[in-house]
């Protein structure tokens, strides 16, 4: 006899909403990981670190990078090692703190990031951006900001 699934109506709203976030994050991340791996030999964890670096005009202290990425500090360190091994990032001693290093994308890292970011957008468009309207995206952004602000102990700000 086939197993039945719990219908949405049987699941409390908060549980369904949480499950939906987990499901969407898992499915979309796996999709991006496959696309980036196939097109650029670039795991999604590497892409995430590159995303933070690409969004900063200046080199990023390794500790800040570790606090920003959705990876553990040891994972960030391993990713930076791998990226440096491929010539995609540099590590330089910090001018502000002799005990720390700063990480920056190389020219090759910026080039690869731009290509990988286009791949990410293309692979997500049909299953995310093209399905959602501006109000949907704003609502998701408001939820993300609210959850993140609570984690960081701050105010959620305007929705």
Number of strands: 3
Quaternary state reads: single chain
Mean of pLDDT: 89
CATH architecture: Orthogonal Bundle
Task: Return the CATH class.
Answer: Mainly Alpha
Strand content: 5-15%
Q: How large is the count of helical segments?
A: 6
CATH topology-level fold name: Arc Repressor Mutant, subunit A
What class do helices, strands and sheet pairing give? mainly alpha
Straight-line N-to-C gap? 47 Å
Helix content: 55-70%
- Listing every helix as H and every strand as E from the N terminus to the C terminus, the arrangement reads HHEHHEEHH
Protein name: MarR family transcriptional regulator
InterPro entries: HTH_MarR-typ, MarR/SlyA-like, WH-like_DNA-bd_sf, WH_DNA-bd_sf
Domain HTH marR-type: 14-149
Pfam family, one: MarR_2
List keywords for this structure.
single chain, 159 residues, mainly alpha, Arc Repressor Mutant, subunit A, 3-stranded antiparallel beta sheet, 60% helix, 8% strand, globular
Describe the structure.
This protein has a single domain (about 10-150), classed as Arc Repressor Mutant, subunit A (Orthogonal Bundle), CATH 1.10.10. Strand 2 (about 90-95) and strand 3 (about 100-105) form a beta hairpin. The N and C termini lie far apart (about 45 Å). Helix 3 crosses helix 4 (about 75-85). The chain has about 160 residues and is mainly alpha-helical. The radius of gyration is 19 Å and the shape is globular. The chain has helices at about 15-40, 45-55, 60-70, 75-85, 105-125, 135-150; strands at about 60, 90-95, 100-105. The protein has a three-stranded antiparallel beta sheet.
């Amino acid at each position: 006899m086939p197993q039945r699934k719990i219908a949405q109506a049987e699941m409390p709203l908060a549980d369904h909403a949480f499950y939906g976030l987990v499901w969407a994050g898992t499915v979309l991340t796996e999709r991006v990981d496959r696309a980036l791996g196939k097109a650029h030999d670039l795991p999604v964890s590497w892409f995430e670190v590159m995303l933070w670096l690409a969004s900063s005009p200046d080199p990023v202290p390794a500790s800040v990078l570790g606090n920003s990425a959705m990876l553990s500090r040891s994972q960030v360190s391993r990713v930076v090692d791998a990226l440096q091994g491929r010539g995609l990032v540099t590590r330089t001693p910090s001018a502000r703190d002799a005990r720390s290093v700063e990480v920056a994308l190389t020219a090759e890292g910026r080039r690869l990031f731009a290509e990988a970011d286009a791949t990410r957008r293309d692979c997500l468009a049909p299953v995310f951006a093209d399905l959602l309207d501006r109000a949907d995206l704003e609502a998701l952004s408001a939820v993300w900001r609210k959850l993140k602000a609570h984690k960081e102990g701050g105010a959620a700000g305007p929705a």
